[in-house]
TrEMBL record:
InterPro entries: Ca_channel_alpha-2/delta. One of its GO terms (cellular component) is voltage-gated calcium channel complex. This is Voltage-dependent calcium channel subunit alpha-2/delta-3. The gene is Cacna2d3_4. One of its GO terms (molecular function) is voltage-gated calcium channel activity. PANTHER family: CA[2+] CHANNEL MUSCLE-SPECIFIC ALPHA2_DELTA SUBUNIT, ISOFORM A, VOLTAGE-DEPENDENT CALCIUM CHANNEL SUBUNIT ALPHA-2/DELTA-RELATED. It comes from Sipha flava.
């Protein structure tokens, strides 16, 4: 959770001197924003599993980052909200005489640009990273891209995006698979039958007043919106429609915000690209997991017996997971998707 506040001033003109603004402090407005809400907006399905996003404040402290570990043994660390970016991103320069906690000049330069809300990138940085529960260290060449979250109002946050070099050159672009199915009178639920799940933290579709609607799980919510999508009066709606924000004045921005209508309880939004990608994944994987699978060839039987294979599964770019148990589950044993979700 992070708290954001801003002073509110009286901008009315002085009644005696019309060229002078009063500028009286009226008070302070603020709100609390869960960190998870920031993470949802980074669109992790586009970043991919080998990249990540992070946010840094104007003090250089990390708001969220995959290497940030604010809790240890269930206890919140004392300095959890004052971890500097230079403590999480470390250059692999192979210098044995390097002093501990002495950041490399490239990381210092990166931090300076981010803190000053610059827009740009630094490429081909060799970065150390840990894995296997911090038991091993590796090195990878990465590219860093950054921009202020709100350059118009000079907000306190800068967004960073990290991708491995030569990564993300290929992308599966799903067509309008949903409309194709609607045009051929296909029923969407035939592709969402047994043993499947979606990514629990990704936003496919949701209501603006999400707390007013209760769903048992993300899959139930998805099917609810799929039914809406396949209805005749469906219309795609975005969470944040393009408002040409960067090309308008602050006065015009304030006027638009003040004139904004309240959001109705039934209003919703969808990530069209993610929904199309998910439906595409569901269609092309349906036949592979629609029937019970047993090893038939000598090659398959050999590997099932040698490695005691008990389940086959897949996970797609659209966040869809499917699985099939090759061996019968013991009484009370959980499904693969209930364990790994």
């Amino acid at each position: 959770m992070t708290a954001i506040s801003i002073p509110i001033f009286n901008k009315k003109r002085d009644e005696f001197n019309k060229t002078k603004v009063k500028g009286d402090l009226l008070g302070v407005a603020g709100t609390d924003v869960p960190i998870a809400e920031f993470e949802k907006l980074t669109l992790p399905y586009k970043i991919g599993v080998n990249g990540y996003a992070f946010i840094v404040t104007n003090n250089g402290y990390v708001l969220f980052h995959p290497k940030l570990r604010p809790v240890e043994d269930g206890i919140l660390k004392d300095n959890h909200n004052s971890i500097d970016l230079t403590e999480l991103e470390m250059i692999d320069d192979n210098k044995e005489d390097e002093q501990p906690r002495q950041p490399h000049k490239d990381i210092v330069q990166l931090r300076e640009a981010i803190v000053n809300h610059k827009r740009g990138s630094m490429e081909n940085l060799s970065i150390k990273f840990h894995y296997d529960n911090m038991r091993r260290v590796g090195s990878e060449v990465r590219n860093y891209h950054y921009t202020a979250l709100d350059p118009k109002i000079e907000g306190p946050f800068t967004l960073g995006l990290v991708l491995p070099a030569s990564y993300g050159n290929n992308w599966i672009k799903a067509g309008d698979e949903i409309n194709k199915s609607i045009g051929s009178d296909e029923q969407f639920d035939k592709y969402f039958q047994d043993k499947w799940k979606i990514h629990p933290n990704w936003v496919y579709c949701d209501y603006f007043h999400s707390s007013e609607r209760k769903f048992e799980n993300p899959e139930e919510k998805l099917l609810h919106f799929m039914e809406k999508i396949f209805s005749p009066d469906w219309e795609w709606r975005e969470q944040y429609p393009d408002s040409n924000f960067e090309n308008i004045s602050m006065d015009e921005f304030d006027r638009r915000e003040c004139d904004r209508k309240p959001i109705d309880i039934d209003e919703f939004y969808c990530d069209k690209e993610l929904m199309q990608l998910l439906f595409f994944d569901a269609k092309i994987t349906h036949a592979l997991y629609n029937l019970t699978w047993k090893p038939t060839t000598e090659f398959e039987k050999h590997y099932v017996d040698q490695y005691n294979v008990s389940v086959r599964f897949l996970a797609t770019q659209g966040g869809l997971s499917r699985w099939q148990h090759i061996l019968d589950l013991a009484e009370g044993e959980l499904q693969f998707g209930d364990i790994h979700n």
